């Protein structure tokens, strides 16, 4: 996609496109549990348009590229508007609003709708997670390997994909949707069901707000397609495909970042890293994310038990702990990915992330050990009590009765 064509498109979409858009939106609205069906009132705090948020939030944004950025604090300071505020700030910082001639009112409306379409009753997959992933994505976009080769279009897509990558997430996983015959599983034929839904929801909002309606139709279609390709890459069940492709490129030193398809692949890898970077954050942040994601798993398990469905792996609160889930996740998913990422981008940030992950893993292992020891002590105390109470229950001479 040429950048020149992107920035000098026609003023409006043709009527055929508008008709297609209308049909798509009707469908989205009706079937995709839109904010209207969920009965969420539209309350748009307009003051954020003027960046008139509190001084502290503004102060935090000056250090938005720091790896220890506390998104939970930022969300509080922005009154729950971290995703809107952060994304708008980053788009402005890169000059993308001017460069792509984005209409501020449309952009604002788009970001408000994106944030609203995240379910804030999900313990984990909510708009704060999306804001966290967007912040991490920004950190990666700033890395020399990417910053020296990415185009403005790549950066715009990377940030938008991060902000929308879990849009309208229902708080349960794909196997749950399949076994409960959810319409989304049927619609997307049991393949990347959630990711397809996130993508299509994002496209619905892009079209509804007309954010790219001033671009040539072909360019906005390309943007939508590339956005999809980035979001679909976050499907964790396809982790090995992406990782082995990445590894092969690194082994053969064959990544050529002048090539659009290679840059796109690197963006996919960056988004994958951003999506699962929780174990690489400082302990205080990482621990909170771990607890939140586990609570979401356990809530799914509770629903499965209630409806007498097989409880999904990791979702049973009786047999799993935050620590064991985290240690396995780091060992089998995060460490291999971030190990390769550090080969690709051998920087201080990559070393910092690996360092945090090592420390966090050790902390979880320590906590696991403490819990096991406490449980053993409890059991042996209970055993001793049981033995004691036995002798009390059968007092000397009781057999006489
Ligand atoms: Zn995510």
From TrEMBL:
It comes from Characodon lateralis. CDD domains: HDc. The keyword Hydrolase applies. Residues 370-401 are annotated as: Disordered. SUPFAM superfamilies: HD-domain/PDEase-like. It holds the Pfam family PDEase_I. It comes from the Eukaryota. Residues 49-371 form the PDEase domain. This is High affinity cAMP-specific 3',5'-cyclic phosphodiesterase 7A. Keywords: Hydrolase, Metal-binding. Residues 379-389 have a biased composition (Low complexity). SMART domains: HDc.
């Amino acid at each position: 996609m040429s950048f020149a064509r992107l920035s000098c498109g026609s003023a409006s979409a043709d009527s055929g496109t508008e008709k297609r858009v209308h049909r798509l939106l009707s469908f989205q609205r009706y079937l995709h549990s839109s904010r209207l069906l969920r009965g969420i009132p539209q309350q748009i705090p307009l003051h954020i348009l003027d960046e008139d948020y509190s001084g502290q939030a503004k102060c935090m944004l000056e250090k938005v590229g720091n790896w220890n950025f506390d998104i939970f604090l930022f969300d509080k300071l922005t009154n729950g508007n971290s995703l809107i505020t952060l994304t708008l700030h980053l788009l402005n910082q890169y000059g993308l609003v001017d460069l792509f001639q984005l209409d501020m009112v449309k952009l604002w409306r788009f970001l408000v709708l994106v944030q609203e379409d995240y379910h804030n009753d999900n313990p984990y997959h909510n708009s704060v997670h999306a804001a966290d992933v967007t912040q991490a994505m920004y950190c990666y976009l700033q890395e020399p390997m990417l910053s020296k080769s990415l185009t403005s279009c790549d950066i715009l897509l990377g940030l938008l994909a991060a902000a929308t990558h879990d849009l309208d997430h229902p708080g349960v996983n794909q196997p749950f949707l399949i076994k409960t015959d959810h319409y989304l599983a049927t619609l997307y034929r049991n393949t990347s069901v959630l990711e397809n839904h996130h993508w299509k929801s994002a496209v619905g909002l892009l079209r509804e707000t007309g954010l790219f309606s001033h671009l040539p139709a072909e360019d906005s279609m390309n943007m939508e397609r590339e956005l999809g390709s980035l979001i679909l890459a976050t499907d964790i069940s396809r982790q090995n495909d992406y990782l082995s492709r990445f590894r092969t490129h690194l082994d053969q030193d064959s990544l050529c970042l002048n090539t659009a398809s290679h840059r796109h692949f690197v963006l996919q890898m960056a988004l994958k890293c951003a999506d699962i970077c929780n174990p690489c954050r400082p302990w205080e942040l990482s621990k909170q994310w771990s607890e939140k994601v586990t609570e979401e798993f356990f809530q799914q398990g509770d629903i499965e038990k209630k409806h007498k469905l097989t409880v999904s792996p990791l979702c049973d609160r009786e047999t799993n702990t935050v620590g064991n889930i985290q240690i396995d996740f780091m060992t089998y998913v995060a460490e291999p990915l971030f190990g390769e990422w550090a080969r690709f981008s051998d920087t201080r940030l990559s070393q910092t992330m690996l360092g945090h992950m090592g420390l966090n893993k050790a902390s979880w292992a320590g906590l696991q050990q403490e819990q096991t020891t406490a449980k053993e002590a409890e059991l042996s105390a209970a055993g001793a009590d049981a033995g004691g109470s036995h002798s009390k229950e059968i007092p000397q001479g009781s057999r006489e009765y």
